[in-house]
Amino acid sequence: MIRILARYSILFILTLLVLTILSFALAYLFPGDVLENLTGITPQNDMQREALMRQYRLDQNVVVQFVHYLGDLASGDWGYSFSSGLSLREEIGIAMPATIELSFYAILMALLIGIPLGYYAGIRSYSVSDKSINALSVTTYSIPVYWFALILILIFSLNLDIAPISGRISLLFDIPPVSGFILIDIMMTENIDKGLAMRDAFSHLALPTFAVGAITTASVVRLIRRSVIDVKNRPYITAARSRGLSGWRIFSQHVIRNALLPILPLMAIQITTLITNAMIVETLFSWPGIGNWLIQAIYQRDYPALRVGMLAVSTLVISLTILIDLFNRIIDPSREKYERATV
C-alpha cells in the first residue's frame, strides 16, 4: 500500500510540474509583449520598463523566472486580475467551488439514476425495455451539451417560465460566499428565510444540473449495461444457476459487485468530460463557476487570470482522476496483479 501511495504521489508531482511549466510558458505564447501580458501596464519610458522587468524577473534567464513563478504559486501570490483588480487566488476560490458544486450534483444524479437503469437494462438484455433504455441513453449521450442546455432554457425558462435562466440564487438574497457552496452558505447565513432561499437555490440548480447530469447519466447507463451483460455470461454465473440459486441471489451476490468493479476505472475518465460539460453549461446559464470566469477572462484578454485559471482547472481534474484511480486500487487490489501480468 505504501508503494502504491508513493507511486501515485510521484505521478501527481510530476504531472503538476508539467502543468506548471505549460502555465508558465503561456506568458510567452500569448500575443503581444511578455511584460504587458504579465502586468497589464504599457511602460511609458525605459526606466519604468526596467523596474517592471526586475520586479517580474524578466531581466534574468528563463530558469530563474520559472523558479520565481513556482515560489509565487506556493506562497499563494497568484497575481491580480486586469479586469477586476482583485487577487486571482480569491477569485478562483469563489469560482471553483461553484463548478465543483454543479459537477457534484450532476454526478450524484448520474449515479442515482444511471446505475439502477444500467443494471435493469443489463438484466433484461435485448428485451424491449432494454432496447428502449439503450436507445434513449445513446441518443442523450450523442446530443451536444450546449445544444441540450439551450433546449432546456427555451422550454422551461422562456416558454413555461418555471425555472430561472441564470445565476445561482435571486438577487433578493444576500448570501456571503463563506464556503463557496451555495447550499452550505445559505445554512450558515443568519437573518434570512432559509427555507425560501433553499427553494430558490434549488430552482436555479435544476436546469444546469440536469443539462450536465443527463449526458453523464447516459454514459453511466451504457457502461453498467455492458458490464452486467459481460458478467451474466461468465462461467461462475452458469455454475450458480446449475446449483439452483434464485435469480435474485445470483444478482445480489454475484452480479452487482462484479459488474461494478470493471467500470470504476472508466469513471475516472468521465471526470474530465463531466467538468468540461459543466464549464460549458456555466456560460449558458451565467453560473458563476470557473468556466464562465475563464470565458470572461478570454473576452477581456486577462492573461494572468487565464494561465492561473487553466492551471487550477488542470490540477483539479488530475487530482480527482488520481484519487478515483487510487480508490479503485484500494477496493480491488487484484487490478495491480493483472496489470503487471500484461506488461
TrEMBL record:
An example of a Gene Ontology cellular component annotation for this protein is: plasma membrane
Pfam name, any one: BPD_transp_1
Q: Where is the ABC transmembrane type-1 domain?
A: 96-328
* Keyword terms: Cell inner membrane, Cell membrane, Membrane, Transmembrane, Transmembrane helix, Transport
Q: How does it sit in the membrane?
A: Multi-pass membrane protein
- UniProt-recorded Gene Ontology molecular function terms: dipeptide transmembrane transporter activity
User: In terms of domain of life, where is this protein from?
Assistant: Bacteria
Report whether Transcription shows up as a keyword of the record. Answer: no
| Record-linked InterPro entries | MetI-like, MetI-like_sf
Membrane-crossing segments per the record: 6-30, 102-121, 141-159, 171-189, 201-224, 259-285, 305-327
Entry-linked SUPFAM superfamilies: MetI-like (SSF161098)
Q: Where located?
A: Cell inner membrane; Cell membrane
Sequence similarity = Belongs to the binding-protein-dependent transport system permease family. OppBC subfamily.
Protein known as: ABC transporter permease subunit
Q: Which organism is it from?
A: Alteromonas profundi
Q: What is the lineage of its organism?
A: Bacteria, Pseudomonadati, Pseudomonadota, Gammaproteobacteria, Alteromonadales
